[in-house]
Each structure stands twice: as C-alpha cells, then as structure tokens.
Amino acid sequence: MGHPVTGRDTGFTLVELLIVVAIVSVLAVGAGLAVSRAPAADRDLSRFLAALSRERALAVIGGQSRGLVIGARGMAAVGRDASGWQVPQHMAPWRGRVTLTGERVANGPDIVFLANGAGSAWRITFSGDGGSRRCAGEGMTEPTCSGG
C-alpha cells in the first residue's frame, strides 16, 4: 500500500523554494534587459498604451472625466474636478519624438475619457532609433496601432 502522508511530506522544501526564486529572478532580469533595449518608439508606445488604458478605467470606475496631456517632451495624466481640469504636476518624459493630432478640449487635456468610457479621437506617432509607430483612437473603440 505505501506509507501514510504525514505533515513532513507535504509542501515545499526550502531548497525547492530557493530554486524557484532564483529562476524567477533570472527571468525578470532578462525581461528587464529586453525592454530597456527596445527602440525608443516601442518603449514610448508601450507607456502610452498603458496610460491610455489606466486613465480610461479610472474615468469609468471613478465616475469622473480623466485625460492625458501629451507634449513634445512628455505625457501626464490629469483629472477633472468642480474647478475644472487639473494642471499636470509632472510630465513623464518621452524617449523619442512624439506627434499628436486631433481635436483638443479648450483648457483641457489632449485626450479625454468620460465616465461612460467614451473618449476623444486622436492620432499619435512615435519615432526614434530609426523606427516609427502610429496609433489612432476613435473614442469608444480600442486603439489601432501600426508600424515597426
């Protein structure tokens, strides 16, 4: 039949746990190096898409308009309260060159997200390190991106 399982036979040993931690650490370092070597346009695009998704979700969850201010030197997330749009305190810098087109709200951010999930239409181009990437958003739909 076999011997009964006791408390000492269950779980992981310290050695097994250390091996798993070491493997995960090596993979994390490798992923970090791969991202830092990505072209500027790809890094800027990734950061932009993450901010876009985050601000849209915050607008819906918080029930208040949110936006992104896009400048030649960087980007900042802003909210809207009773007194109007917030002034960006810090612009996260771009690694390459960024160009945005689209209608802009007077005295507001370049890209706006409403509490119902709708947003403004925009087109953006990221360039640097010899490559370029383009994305467009039309309000309620997910952005479409191209380039390489």
TrEMBL record:
Any Pfam family hit: N_methyl
PROSITE patterns: PROKAR_NTER_METHYL
Domain of life: Bacteria
Bilayer-spanning residue ranges: 12-35
Alphabetized UniProt keyword annotations: Membrane, Transmembrane, Transmembrane helix
Gene3D superfamilies, alphabetized: Glycoprotein, Type 4 Pilin
Database matches in NCBIfam families: IV_pilin_GFxxxE
Listed name of the protein: Type II secretion system protein H
Naturally occurring in which organism (per UniProt): Salipiger aestuarii
